[in-house]
Design goal:
The protein is of the alpha+beta class. It is built from 2 helices and 7 strands, in the order βββββαββα. It starts with a strand and ends in a 12-residue tail after the last helix. The relative contact order is 0.16. The structure holds zinc ion (ZN). Zinc ion binds next to loops.
Length: 123
Amino acid sequence: MSDTKAVDRHCPEHGTFDVTVKWGSDATFAKHPCPTCGRKCGRPRIETGNELPMTQLPGTWPQTSFFGGVHPSQVNELREHLRKHGVNAEVLPSGDVKFTSRGQRRAYLRARGMVDLDGGYSD
Ligand SMILES: [Zn+2]
């Protein structure tokens, strides 16, 4: 089993690119420089910050998380953890987390002790 995974980042000028990060590291959530222009880029779709608020994007939910899925070997642990914190999000066998609402995503991030690094939502 690999210790790294590829995550997507999106440069407004040069499109989506892959970054390989270690599982569970901050790099999973951080912005990464575009290979072409060096601009720090966030995750695609909802994270670029210059797009419509999530609530106005059609078909955004349910959403499989870009926000801190876990290694497949940690799926049961994460499920248990979320249950304890009353977070009703579905953890897929792949280690990704599926949310059906924005509140659920927030609760999940709280439960995992993370802040949304991109911030910018005023709700
Ligand atoms: Zn670029």
